[in-house]
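ok so for the tutorial part 2 we go from a plain amino acid sequence to predicted structure tokens. step 1 is just haveing the sequence, like this:
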Amino acid sequence: MESAGDYDYIIVGAGTAGCVLANRLTRNRDVNVLLIEAGGRDDYLWIHIPVGYLHCIGNPRTDWLYRTEAEAGLGGRSLIYPRGKVLGGSSSINGMIYMRGQSQDYDRWAEVTGDSSWCWDRVLPMFMKSEDYYGGSSAAHGSGGEWRVEKQRLSWQILDAFRDAAEQTGIPKTQDFNGGDNEGCAYFDVNQKRGIRWNTAKAFLKPAAARPNLTIMTGCHVERLILEDSDQGKRCSGVEFTGGGTAWFAHASRETVLTAGAIGSPQILQVSGIGPAALLQDKGIAVQCDLPGVGENLQDHLQLRMIYKVSNAKTLNTSAASWFGKFKIGLEYALRQSGPMSMAPSQLGAFARSDPSQATPNLEYHVQPLSLEKFGDPLHPFPAFTASVCNLRPSSRGHVRVASGDSYAAPKITPNYLTTAEDRRVAGAALALTRRIVAAPALAKYAPQEFAPGVHFCTEDELAEAAGQIGTTIFHPVGTCKMGKTDDDLAVVDSQLRVRGVKALRVVDASVMPFITSGNTNSPTLMIAEKAAQMIVNTA
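step 2 — the prediction. this is what the tokens look like for a chain of 540 residues:
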């Protein structure tokens, strides 16, 4: 085993959080940082063309290729579970939607951690610090930061009509989802720069890569954390990893920071002997620190994809149906970086309540001017749109658990979708709300006809069954190393993101969220890293 050197900090994973931390920590030129990434460089063309997510998800060049276990709530189906395996992580393959969530999300974090620094008023400056908002600076937005936020570069009449129909159904139009109250309907803002994907590798890592105090090692797989006994108990002194056919070790004099995401971070902890003792013993892993919550508390947004055939409407199904149509789409992007190739996977969003008792919106819509059977399949041969709706605050909880002590073996991912009566009730109400929107006068001229799940699903039980048939992940796993108070047995890290029972080790990624945010999770993860960087610098 060869030495990769001694560093002040080692960051494991060059995804959204890892890129931010690498940038922030290396601003101090007296600090040496090693950033380890299992994937390769973000030099694949399809990463940067927005529609290229179709070529990145399910591609071993950019995706870990995870799958869930068979889900009882989904009729026994196993789902693809994309996670970015490349510089920039999931920000290199995701839907590019800029979304913070609701103010109450963060106030709830502050409550369960007992740390007021996680409340909305305190995290808002962290969002704004890195933001470069197309509308300039204001009380809610920042400008001049690394994280570019732009308007989308196209619109669709069918989506405009859906927005009008949502308003007629009681969902008001809004201009900004990111002021702390995201109720309403609008086109999503996106992390793009002039029609090109803006991932965290471009935004944060590229400026830092030129600094002599940052070492980046790609194509390197972390096998385990190095744990040593100290006067104060266990201490993480570095990592062991493989890359380029060589086994390596590296030492960190100050801290090791896991930024491998909601799947990768709990897996690395578990194979290193940090996790539920019974699970580790069952897999033949020596227990270093019994932490029952590692890998538990998995939360995700399950999207219910309702498809409607339409008439007299332009949709991507018809625009891309011929070679001439594809040529026009390609030419428009080549000349102006606009048109369908600049599209985020979902263009129009809406936040609504499944019933009046909800204090804040608990549903999010991702509306698309296209339809297909499932991800990776060809578009349908008829004009259609898809209205995907998800429960923003699911009560079902899943888990991520190692399959063995082999760090190369994919972990077992069990989201447990729709396993609670509350989640099934909300799913049924969400489908019913979608039908009311589509039946509103604004969409009448397009004569929408429900293609999936089908109008024969009517009763509350039938709608819950339909949800299980059409539900699929929208790729927002969080919570598997959640932060919490000392009396929370399932809390893995404290409010400073330090791993319980192990010195010099933090987790900084979506896994630390105690509750999933009310919206897309990429930018909240970036905020967590921005905040963690301050914590680390202040305790150095």
